[in-house]
């Protein structure tokens, strides 16, 4: 299973940081950021890994 949401497909992203030293921006390494994946139960009883944003969306009540 990949580090990806099973519901929306959100995956990892590359992030760059800008380090400021004495008025100049220095090159820094790129960092990979991962989504906040959690185990959640589906209505049929199986467990899937979905991101916390999808957990919030699915738990909302419909008006």
Task: Write a brief caption for the model.
The chain is mainly beta and 63 residues long.
What does this structure look like?
The chain is mainly beta and 63 residues long. The chain is 13% helix and 38% strand. A hairpin with a 5-residue loop joins strand 5 and strand 6.
Shape: elongated
Structural class based on helices, strands and sheet pairing: mainly beta
Percent range of helical residues: 10-25%
Strand fraction band?
Answer: 35-45%
Low-confidence stretches: none
Number of strands: 6
Give the CA-CA distance, first to last residue. 35 Å
Alpha plus pi helix count: 1
Written as H for each helix and E for each strand, in order along the chain, the element string is: EEEEEEH
Question: How many distinct folded domains?
Answer: 1
User: Could you give the order of strands across the largest sheet?
Assistant: 1-4
Radius of gyration: 18 Å
The average pLDDT value, as a whole number, equals: 89
State the major sheet. 2 strands, antiparallel
InterPro entries: Ribosomal_bL28/bL31-like_sf
Protein name: 50S ribosomal protein L28
Keywords: Ribonucleoprotein, Ribosomal protein
Topology of this structure?
Blueprint (H helix, E strand, L loop, with lengths): L12 E4 L2 E3 L2 E3 L3 E4 L3 E5 L5 E5 H8 L4
Antiparallel strand pairs: 1-4, 2-3, 5-6
InterPro entries: Ribosomal_bL28/bL31-like_sf (IPR034704)
Protein name: 50S ribosomal protein L28
Keywords: Ribonucleoprotein, Ribosomal protein
């Amino acid at each position: 299973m990949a580090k990806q949401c099973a519901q929306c497909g959100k995956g990892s992203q590359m992030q760059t940081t800008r380090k400021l030293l004495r008025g100049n921006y220095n090159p820094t390494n790129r960092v990979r950021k991962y989504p906040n994946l959690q185990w959640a139960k589906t209505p049929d009883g199986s467990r899937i890994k979905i991101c916390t944003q999808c957990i919030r969306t699915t738990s909302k009540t419909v008006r």
